[in-house]
Amino acid sequence: MFKADDLAIFPIDSWIQHGVSWVALNLRPLFLAIKWPVEALLSLNDAVLHAIPFPVFVVGFTLLAWRLATPGIAAFSAISLVVIAMLGVWNEAMTTLSLISTAIVFCAVIGIPMGIWCASSDRVWNVVRPILDIMQTTPSFVYLVPVVMLFGVGTVPGEVAVVTAAAPPLIRFTNLGIRMVEHEIVEAGLAFGADKRQLLFEIQLPLAIPTILGGLNQTVLTAMVLSVVVAMIGAEGLGLVVLQGLGRLDVGRAAVGGIAIVLLAMVLDRITQKLAEPRRGGAAQTSLLATVMRLFKGGRPEEPAATAIAAKQAL
Amino acid sequence: MTERLQIQNLYKIFSANPEAALQILANGGDKNTVFDKLGAVVGLNNVSLSVPQGAMYMVMGLSGSGKSTLARCINRLNEPSAGKILLDGRDIVPLKEEELREVRRTRISMVFQHFALLPNKRVIENVEFGLKLRGVSPAERRRRADEVLSVVGLARWGYHFPHELSGGMRQRVGLARALATDADILIMDEAFSALDPLIRTEMQDELLRLQRTLNKTILFITHDFQEALKLGTRIAIMSEGELVREGTPQSIVLEPGSDYVAAFTREIDRARLFDARSVMRATAPILQSERGILVGDAAGAAGPGFVLDGEGRVLGALDAAALGRARASGEMGTPSSDYVSVPGNAKLLEVARSYRDGRPIAVVDEDGRFVGTLGVDELLSRISSTSAKTASAGDRHV
């Protein structure tokens, strides 16, 4: 009888094995070059976050949440941070936060220009889009195998995996935000003689900011998830607490890590979600005085997140 | 008047390969043939027109007639497929990107149907927009924007955001933005169509008021024939991408030329459209004496006569009976001061208002010189007439 296994004649596994080994051996300088800035920024963030005294951090973070979001979210943030400290995983939480904040920087630096490029040309978008689809549907721990082979194990290779997985939403939302800018307003820019650069910086980017911030929210959440998963390749942080708990069948320890992860994720999600809501008068208004006033008055965005919601539905 | 803008044999085919479509049109095919054979849409089919300096030129048509396509071809937001667009005699179709940008920044500005203001910028920053793109210094462009904002009556609103303004006010901002660049050609694409009827009327009056002092060359796109009649010095009517009728408002209503155009003119309030000059009868001198020159109907018909001085000013009038006696006897008789004098550009409605029981009506020009007479018969027949001639020879049919 003819069996399905008889068809298994392609030694794809060994081809890939050889291919990746070849790449790892011959392109080593390239991967070291990629690793270097990640390592530098990550260790800086990590050092800074661990150096800030606990009370200073809580007060500072709460004020920041107040300014960027609402007094309610600020209070929630303060309570969550204190609870994380009470659980005894403060240092691990700071390590995870440094992983995420570093990822945000790299995703923004890579993702926003990439999104702008995609929006400027249908041909580019048609190539990039299926790649993003694949990247976003791939289970997150699948990233770990090539990362280990190319970058090794530890926190820095973990960070590379986090950045790789978290960048796609930002590319997608930036592209979408620019393409969603009202056609007539773009036409107005052209009619008054804007060149490509002016069109981008005077019209398209400012009007796409609410959508781009919606993408940032997605990126932060993806980074949060990945920062836990990369504990499997030796990255430190809250993920490691859970992994250790599992390894030792210590349910209590694993639960502590889990609770801290959920609290941190909710705090980051709420703040970045509020960022994405367009304020009355436009999100691009960042005058210093207005910002300081918001700090004291706790100014609230009044318009619902229409754009961000529309953007999510469009995806 | 000099021709500021001339459009010659302009075609716009929405297709990657317009050559084949142009070939079909050149061989006598029409829009539908092109669509059936190539699946390409013909936006503009051999449109030629010329806009004099200082004109308020209305392009009127229903949706899909190609009027907005035409407007967007003029500043090349749409690339014409063939033909010429002469701006002061210089063809702007072959211009390179940089030269085109210069034309857009300094010569042609545009007002949009849905205002197209930047929602994240204050009113005054929106008005400055064109100047900012051109690289004018911040202080200079703020000064200019302040100036233009007070011209459109929004001086106090400069530091508000567009969403805080009503529709009419937003379109004033759109207008101010277009005026700020000092471009001499203004394209207004359905500029008032999104406004409530009352606000629309107000904005139309405002535009007429502004145009008296600004004297820009305005190309106004509209689907509203009433609006075209009210604002326009000339009107071009488009249908299916072609120009079907072009002329002054009065001449179009008088001679629509085709059933398509006649359909628009049927419900028009003629008393508000036609002026005294358009219905008056010509006169010819009958007698001359030391009292002045007596003029009467040029064709010799009965009717009032007027006695003029050497300058052509009206001294007095003779009624029909007195004029008949004067014709018969050669004696002028005594002119009476019982007559009504109306300016040539007075609308028929105003003429009817100033008419008093049986008094003869003299039509005079801006300098008070007599140009003709008009009777109640002409007035009534013009107000009530539906267009007598349709589809006269030489007019394109639709």
UniProtKB/TrEMBL annotation, chain A:
UniProt KW keywords: Cell membrane, Membrane, Transmembrane, Transmembrane helix, Transport
Residue span(s) of domain ABC transmembrane type-1: 93-272
PROSITE patterns attached to this UniProt entry: ABC_TM1
Listed PANTHER family: GLYCINE BETAINE/PROLINE BETAINE TRANSPORT SYSTEM PERMEASE PROTEIN PROW, GLYCINE BETAINE_PROLINE BETAINE TRANSPORT SYSTEM PERMEASE PROTEIN PROW
Pfam families, per the entry: BPD_transp_1
Family: Belongs to the binding-protein-dependent transport system permease family.
InterPro entries in the cross-refs: MetI-like, MetI-like_sf
A Gene Ontology term for the protein's cellular component: ATP-binding cassette (ABC) transporter complex
Membrane topology: Multi-pass membrane protein
Protein name per its UniProtKB record: Glycine betaine/proline transport system permease protein
Subcellular localization, as worded in the UniProt entry: Cell membrane
Gene Ontology terms describing biological process: choline transport; glycine betaine transport
Residues that span the membrane, as ranges: 47-66, 73-90, 96-120, 141-167, 220-243, 250-268
Species the sequence originates in: Bosea lathyri
GO MF terms held by the record: amine transmembrane transporter activity; carnitine transmembrane transporter activity
Automatic annotation (TrEMBL), chain B:
Keywords: Amino-acid transport, ATP-binding, Cell inner membrane, Cell membrane, Membrane, Nucleotide-binding, Transport
EC numbers for this chain: 7.6.2.9
Any one Pfam family match given in the protein's UniProt record, by short name: CBS
Domain called ABC transporter: residue spans: 5-265
Statement: the UniProt record of this protein carries the keyword Cell inner membrane: yes
Statement: the UniProt record of this protein carries the keyword Membrane: yes
Catalytic activity entry: a quaternary ammonium(out) + ATP + H2O = a quaternary ammonium(in) + ADP + phosphate + H(+)
Bilayer topology: Peripheral membrane protein
GO cellular component terms, A-Z: plasma membrane
Intracellular or extracellular location(s): Cell inner membrane
GO term, biological process aspect, one: amino acid transport
Main location: membrane
A Gene Ontology molecular function term of the record: ATP binding
Self-association and partners: The complex is probably composed of two ATP-binding proteins (TmoW), two transmembrane proteins (TmoV) and a solute-binding protein (TmoX). The complex is probably composed of two ATP-binding proteins, two transmembrane proteins and a solute-binding protein.
Family that this chain belongs to: Belongs to the ABC transporter superfamily.
Cited NCBIfam families: proV
Name the UniProt record assigns to this protein: Quaternary amine transport ATP-binding protein
Organism annotation: Bosea lathyri
